[in-house]
Amino acid sequence: MAFDVDGVLTDGSITYTDKGDEIKSFNAQDGSAIKRLIASGIEVALITGRQSPMVERRARELGIRHLHAGAADKLDALNKLLDKLDLDAVACAYVGDDLPDLPVLEAVGLAVSVPNGQPEVRQAAHHVTERPGGNGAASDVCRLILSVREHPPPGEPNRRQI
């Protein structure tokens, strides 16, 4: 499970203080849900085009081991991660909101957008969350993943066995 950051884990706003420090706000429900995903054995990654000490801190707080910050090519970052984890892209889900996310969304098995995402991104997505980025969208996706894992559709194997 991989997430973009700005516009997905945040509302997309970038605020600067008078001293030039950057401020980001993260949703507590998203953090709790991501921790549940990790506790269930699902690898979680953040792939973001920006470098930010706040994102590094948030990843540490949540126990996210795979942070790809400053990723000019997000698909390349995903492919390096998949090689490291010995996974296929179809076994991965990704949540994005902006045009740099499109190549990743087109490569993964479950492409998710937020309702405040760019129109092209929403159109490319298999699923659009009900809540916007920074306001519980990641929590919605985590619940969806865990629900399918616990209660697979009829005829599908239990995801805990996979």
Describe the overall structure.
The structure is a single chain. The protein has helices at residues 28-39, 53-62, 74-85, 102-107, 119-124, 137-150, and strands spanning 2-3, 15-16, 22-23, 45-47, 66-68, 93-96, 110-113, 127-128. With 162 residues, it is α/β, with parallel strands linked by helices. The chain has a 6-stranded parallel beta sheet. Helix 1 packs parallel to helix 6 (137-150). The longest helix is centred in the last third of the chain and has 14 residues, at 137-150. The protein starts with a strand and ends in a 12-residue tail after the last helix. The model has no long low-confidence stretch (mean pLDDT 93).
Distance, first to last CA: 15 Å
Note the run of SSEs as H and E.
Answer: EEEHEHEHEHEHEH
Main sheet attributes: strand count, strand direction, barrel closure: 6 strands, parallel
- The strand count comes to 8
Helix content: 25-40%
List the strand order in the largest sheet.
5-4-1-6-7-8
Residue-averaged pLDDT: 93
Instruction: Work out the strand percent.
Output: 5-15%
**Based on CA inertia axes, which overall geometry fits?**
globular
Oligomer state of the chains in this structure: single chain
Brief overview, please?
The chain is 37% helix and 14% strand. It is an alpha/beta fold and 162 residues long.
Keywords:
8 strands; globular; 6-stranded parallel sheet; 162 residues
